[in-house]
Amino acid sequence: MSGSEFLNVSLPKGRLGETVLNMFCRAGLGADAERGDRRLIFENEDAGIRFFWVKPSDVTVYVERGAADIGVAGSDIIDEYSPDVYELLDLGMGKCRMCVAAPEGGTVNKNLRGRLTVATKFPETAVRYYRGLGRDIDIVKLNGSVEIAPLAGLSDVIVDIVETGTTLRENGLVVTETISAISARLIANKSSMKFKRERILAVTELLRGYCGD
């Protein structure tokens, strides 16, 4: 089977990607990827599907640029980067929240006077949220553990993903506002939806039956 005949799927490395691959397997579309296997590309030739393991924040890039026909990305990534893709299905997994968190007992987020300093890995999301509140902010873009920022005096608050809230509590932070709910989404390249539409929609419908399992 030639490369153009495969349906190319970009999956995020890590726990979410492994869960999604298991979903594909249960739907009869998976491929052999043993634990510890270092391959980044693997195929199910009978089903005509090729999978790529990529960094979670790169899934949308592969799909938008057509290297992958479809992919699975968190809605946090989609909201942050606004890729020009179709969103086909909420897979009902990887659920968490995008939140504002501040030092416990603080009042900075309730005081709408003055400029707020926000540390985050998601600057576009933070700017869009506070713009909607009419609030001026300074963004501190971080790539690591943002929970440290308020404790070190680098920021007033953080905007970050919250799953259980344990890390926040252990670092003396509390959620003050929820920006959005997050879950994994199946997305598709717009050109692929023209030329591989039937196959993509067939895969979408197969996966729909396993959403949230």
Class computed from helices, strands and strand pairing: alpha/beta
Summarize the helix and strand pattern as letters. EHEEHEHEEEHEHEHEEHH
Largest sheet: 6 strands, mixed
Q: Which whole number gives the mean pLDDT? A: 90
Which percent band covers the strand fraction? 25-35%
Helix residue percentage? 25-40%
Q: Count of helices? A: 8
Q: In angstroms, what separates the terminal alpha carbons?
A: 32 Å
Strand order of the largest sheet: 2-3-1-4-11-5
Question: How many strand units?
Answer: 11
Which segments are poorly predicted (pLDDT under 50) over 5 or more consecutive residues? none
State Rg.
Answer: 19 Å
The outline comes out as elongated
Can you put this structure into words, describing what you see?
The protein has 213 residues and is α/β, with parallel strands linked by helices. It has eight helices and eleven strands. The protein has helices spanning 15-26, 59-64, 75-81, 123-132, 148-151, 166-170, 192-195, 197-208, and strands spanning 7-12, 41-44, 49-54, 70-74, 86-90, 96-103, 116-120, 137-141, 157-162, 173-182, 184-188. The chain has a six-stranded mixed β-sheet.
List the helices and strands and how they pair.
Layout: E1 7-12, H1 15-26, E2 41-44, E3 49-54, H2 59-64, E4 70-74, H3 75-81, E5 86-90, E6 96-103, E7 116-120, H4 123-132, E8 137-141, H5 148-151, E9 157-162, H6 166-170, E10 173-182, E11 184-188, H7 192-195, H8 197-208
